TrEMBL record:
It is an enzyme of class 3 (hydrolase). Residues 190-305 form the LD-carboxypeptidase C-terminal domain. This is Muramoyltetrapeptide carboxypeptidase. Residues 1-21 are annotated as: Disordered. It comes from Orrella dioscoreae. PANTHER family: MURAMOYLTETRAPEPTIDE CARBOXYPEPTIDASE (PTHR30237), MUREIN TETRAPEPTIDE CARBOXYPEPTIDASE (PTHR30237:SF2). Residues 30-146 form the LD-carboxypeptidase N-terminal domain. The keyword Protease applies. It holds the Pfam family Peptidase_S66C. InterPro entries: Carboxypeptidase_A_C_sf (IPR027461), Class_I_gatase-like (IPR029062), LdcA_N (IPR027478), Peptidase_S66_N (IPR040449), Peptidase_S66C (IPR040921), S66_fam (IPR003507). Keywords: Carboxypeptidase, Hydrolase, Protease, Serine protease.
Amino acid sequence: MSKTESKGRAKRADNCPSHIHPTPADYRGIYMISPSGAVREPAALALACERLGGMGFRTAVDRTALAVDQRFAGTDAQRAAAFTRAIKQKLPIVMATRGGYGLSRLLHLLDWQAIADSGKRFVGHSDFTAFNLALLAQTGAVSYTGPCACADFGGRKLDALTPDLFAETMRGELEILSFEAPGADAVDCRGVLWGGNLAIVASLVGTPYLPKVRGGILVLEDVGEHPYRVERMLTQLLHAGILARQKAIVLGRFTDYKLAPHDQGYDMDAVVAWLRGVVKVPVVTGLPYGHVPTKATLPIGAKVGLATEDGMAYLVLHEHHHDHGQDHGHAQDHAAHGHCDACGHDHGPSHAPGEDHAH
């Protein structure tokens, strides 16, 4: 797997507009809230604030971020009130301390239009998918699926690329995320990026909090779900007509499950093969996203481009005007170049080697 971006390689394509939040004059401020599970190790949150501070981010922690009510980070009312405080305070980024479970209980309690109007950048993953998709469904606003404070910045070891991908996305510098995608179906398209944790996506089917995206690029990941459960949730999306309406399905990591002897070869590769057999939508694997150390920060609700070529996939997240020859990236250069209709760019398979080569 690879996990970096190539940037500033060609002119901006005027027919590929960006729908991502403009970069504020001061993006370096993060307000921490706990909308789902209780923080198990307060020291991890303190360490996350310290590390983010070392990256140049000012941090503030909501007053109920460490609250505990059963398995939750406070009562439903407390966790909903944290969103109200988050949109009133001055820091531009709002990050979930962790995922878990509990955000689905809040969806009918939140003022979605006020959240969208605040202009804050909300970031989280896993259970935070419920927020990402509900905000998109209710208002059309963009939010981000990416790192959480405790797991990604407060762990024993800080991943080498996740912090950079997060910071560059917040600065509006991450233009093209390239990653190894051996065996990926051929695709060259544009569409609204949406999705997240598969279990949460499936749980929102039939509710007003699942966006009705046609011609989108659907990204999915999950953790602790046996392949048959992954297939069962994909089947739900299939029979609901959701998969057939997309331009592409992009799979991140499906981790921490245990196969049984009677599976007899039925694994995630078998599920992907089944998926390709039942949908006429291109399927791309290898996205650096999920419950893994290295994860990209992705704009849910933004219009993006996607192309595959020679075992590589290119997710076009953001574009800038550049002076000729200017290079703001740190991707490695390779000799081969091709033209990507998804973004109008000429580029090669520029990426850095990753730690996780599983697909």
